[in-house]
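Amino acid chain:
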Amino acid sequence: MIALRSVLFNTIFYTNLIIRMIVLSPYYFVVPRLTAYAIPKNWARSNHWLMRMIVGTTFEIEGLQNLPEGSFILAPKHQSFWDTYALLPNLKDPVYILKRELMWIPLFGWYAKKQRMIPVDRGARGKVMVEVLKRTREELSTGRQLIIYPEGTRRPPGAEPVYKYGIARMYRDLGIPVVPVAMHPGLFWPRRSIRRYPGHFKVRILPPIMPGMDPDAFFAHLIEVTERASDELLIDTVERNPHLPLPPTAVARLTELRKVKAATA
């Protein structure tokens, strides 16, 4: 049954994306940018509905009150394609720094360009990165929210964290709050898999880290608060969903956490 529901969901998910892009393009490219943003936000909401109705996966968001007014950096854990779009409806005007190759994809790239997403060559240094920072400042000066995944790429649930120091440089140079986000969508929408699993999980938006800290101290604090919340949610999610097939990384992390709990009991 899970295999059948997964195939059905994946088919409808991508059909939904393509049809919306094609059918709504005339409206999207004519109306003002912020008005057009309703289309990808509604697409995200429709995906949540599809996950709930076809797969049986639901989620709840804790800590929406922790999102500041105006510009900030949202720093989520990154485990799945799900978390690339899931929080769009909860943000006023988010902007991403994208691999430049994504901007070359027909329709998707045009949609991203309309929303003034910021392309970057991941191997670039020096002047190119200076230009990316300049573009980022320009977008944030209008009150937008920057979404950055501190680990850079998707990591399986429970995996040892590998945070990139780039977010500490952005924190220092941009001088705006950073909002960590912990969640485990990778248990329900695993990376490199077509399987989708039913169940319920939490997204936890943590209190913002205000500007002004030493970058090294900020970096250590970001990792500490995010990983502590991530561990708590891993335990909670597995207890709520005992049927889930866990990846080896999650099994290993849970074993470690239980040993620590037993040692301190």
Observations:
- The beta strands are 57-62, 73-76, 94-99, 118-120, 145-147, 178-183, 199-205.
- The longest strand covers residues 199-205.
- The chain has a mean pLDDT of 94.
- Residues 28 and 206 are 33 Å apart (CA to CA).
